[in-house]
Amino acid sequence: MSRVRAAVLQMCSANDVDANLATLRAAAADAAGEGVRLLALPENFAYMGARAVDKLAIAERPGSGPIQGACAELARRHGMWLIAGTIALADPEEPHRIIAACIVYDDQGRPRARYDKAHLFDVEGADGRSYRESATIAPGPARAVLSDGPGGRGGLSVCYDLRFPELYRRQVEEGALWLAVPSAFTQATGRDHWAPLLAARAIENQCFVLAPNQCGTHADGRATWGHSRIVGPWGELLAECNNAPGLAVAELDLAAQAALRRRFPALTHRRFV
C-alpha cells in the first residue's frame, strides 16, 4: 500500500506495570479508532522504576510474561503492527543486567523482529546527573535489525542509538523506508538535540522517522523531554506531541518518498562506503 497511517505514543511511565499497561490499552484503542496500522511505543513504556536496578524485578523471559503478552494481544485485537519500545528481558548469562529489547508484533500478535539496544547511555548528563546504563543493561550485538510491516521495511533502534548515524545507514542499505527510535530522552539533552538529530536521520537517509518519547518526571526524579515526533524523508515535521502524554498520528506517503528518492538520488551518490 502506498499510504499508511502511523502513530507514536508519548507516555509518562511510572513504576507500576499494571498502570502503564492500562494506559497503553486505552491509547491503542484510540489509535485503532483513527485507522492507525503501525503504532510505536517509547522506551521503557511498561516500567520506569525509582532505581535503575528495579527493572531486574520485572524482567521477563523471551516469549513469555505479562508485558509481552499484553503487546501481542493488543496488536491482534486492533489488527495493527506494534513497535514495543523496549521490554526488559532477563539475561540468563548476566543475572545483574537485563536486555532492553525492542520487539515488533504483527497484526496477528506474532513477534516478527527483535532489536536489543546496542549503544548504552553512560555519560555525565547535561542535567548534572550521572547515567550508567551499562550497570543494569547488557548491550545488544552491533548489527542492524529490520522488520517488514504495513509501511514497508523499517529499521529498529533505541534512544541513545540516535547519535550513531552509521547504524541507520546500514539499515537503509538493507532497504529501510522508516526508522523507529523509541526513546526516553532527558529534558536536558532533548531540549538541544532531539529535533536536530531526528531531522538529520530523516534527511540523510530519506526515511520516515517514528520517534515516541517519554515525558514528564518519573519515579527516580528523572525528567524526560517529550515532543514525540513523526518526521518525513525531507525532514518535515508530520506530527508531534507536546509535553503531555498522548498520540501523534500521521500518514506515511510511501509513493511520495519513492518519488523523492528518484528525483533527489543522494543515496546513490555515496562514495565513502
Explain briefly what this protein structure is.
This protein has 273 residues and is an alpha/beta fold.
Describe this structure in words.
This protein is α/β, with parallel strands linked by helices and 273 residues long. It has a single domain, classed as 4-Layer Sandwich (Nitrilase/N-carbamoyl-D-aminoacid amidohydrolase), CATH 3.60.110.10. It has five helices and 16 strands. It has a six-stranded mixed beta sheet with strand order 5-4-3-2-1-16. Helix 1 (17-33) runs parallel beside helix 2. It is globular, with a radius of gyration of 17 Å. The mean pLDDT is 97.
Topology of helices and strands:
Layout (H helix, E strand, L loop, with lengths): L2 E8 L6 H17 L4 E3 L25 H13 L2 E10 L7 E8 L5 E6 L5 E3 L5 E3 L13 E2 L6 E3 L8 H9 L4 E3 L6 H19 L2 E4 L3 E3 L5 E3 L3 E3 L5 E4 L5 E8 H10 L10
Parallel strand pairs: 1-2, 2-3, 9-10, 10-11
Antiparallel strand pairs: 1-16, 3-4, 4-5, 6-7, 8-9, 11-14, 12-13, 14-15
Helix pairs in contact: 1-2
